[in-house]
């Protein structure tokens, strides 16, 4: 099953420890334009590696990386470790603090077809290509993808709890989340992590584009290496692993914003009526509460009017037979099939390429873009349940792109991982009962 290794991590030099909050950055696919502009002003912020500037951004990242290594801005830990990563947070309206517990390790970038790492949503090709170019140029990873493993007995948690008592970092990030990083170097304990994950599949929660880029890079490198063994650095990818059975694993909704739609509001509503029950709302602020408890219900927001729309239950039978029940009954599949495909005329297979669809977690920004005329309308959605994610992954199917928003997001720059062979190489057999293939 899944193969992991400890990481010979790269981190900011200890002289930067007190300023680590200024050097970390949001992930490449969630950092806003305003955040980017502010972060770029710091010459040592990790955004220069994760979302590089310039006409040739990958080349720029390579130059920055070499400069940082030469100047000792970042340094490599000589001993591989399992990096324990805890995130403490509160969601609006909650008094109790939650803690998402996990650890960061190198994970083998297995092909999807091997069914060792399972995906749950489609990717957007341009974002994958950008990640491949960046990985080719730097052989360096500025942030981990997020994977889930199933451990109902929480067997690894005592080791993690102990390690986090003596953290490397402990600070509040841009989300208001308390970020704590510790490390485990004990070889016997690391064996426990490797063995448990080695008996599991991994469900990819966040970072589909980066992981798909890692797969493509591994294939290219392997095909050009006549002595390929499977143990080279290019076979691995940095991943933050959390327990799917944790009570503090949260998924937030990702709304849809539509632009350059030529149909007027009245025409869209008329085309929706064969499939949806439509109710006009007096207050757009009611949308999230009104759709929360209803299956296949959504908010539909235009510049002057807002509606609650709900699929007529028997219309589910008009979904094509090629979709199994685990997928066809998902809220987001309903909206992408009936509204985006049937009403707007953007076929399902083309939607992930479309520049007319934008994905936004923040409800206020959705409403703002519609009210300003920047967007034609937006669809307000509900969160996807963790059980649905697991069911879809295990069925071999995928959800529409940007179906889930696992919260909180991990950070870029907290820990770096190199897959350049001289920096990756280590006798990892000491952490295993058997040598790796």
From TrEMBL:
Top-level taxon in the UniProt lineage: Bacteria
Xref: Pfam families: DUF1015 (PF06245)
The name this protein goes by in its record: SpoOJ/ParA/ParB/repB family protein
